[in-house]
Amino acid sequence: MSRIGKKPVEILAGVTVSVAGSTINVEGPAGKLSFEHRPEVTVEVNSDDNIVLVDRINEHRESRAFHGLTRALINNMIIGVKEGYEKRLEIVGVGYNGQIQGDTLKLRVGYANELQKKIPAGLDVSCPDNTHIVVKGPDKQKVGQFAAEVRALRKPEPYKGKGIRYQGEHVKIKAGKAAT
User: Is 172 left (phi over 0), alpha (psi -120 to 50) or beta?
Assistant: First the structure.
């Protein structure tokens, strides 16, 4: 049996969880999220103990897989509407910079043209300075996806390390021709 799926999800203070059919709605101080779970699992809210229980209907392989997944997604939603998620990116390179204009992230990262990336609804993107980007939001998947798309616009290259990287990411630098 799924070890993750068996664990009950604790509902944090200030968060409300409701289940209507196969739709799970989670509300909190950071926002509202909803998720439609698969028919292979059942979700029930125990308001007395302040927990959410996820159970599967049978022992098929797909049911076992969706059991742990559904529990993890609900847990991420509860944490997201309570505290929110955050990804930090840094821009490394001479003349490389980024800025926010309206709902667009504009990047100058060594190409002839300025790159523009539209900021999705529900995310808060800011640039504390020219070389850092902060992506915040209640939905863990949206935050991670947008940060990955921004990083993919100019991945760190292995010779000088120029490009967009996650803060704290270690880029392995190659020696190049001069070392031989």
Answer: beta
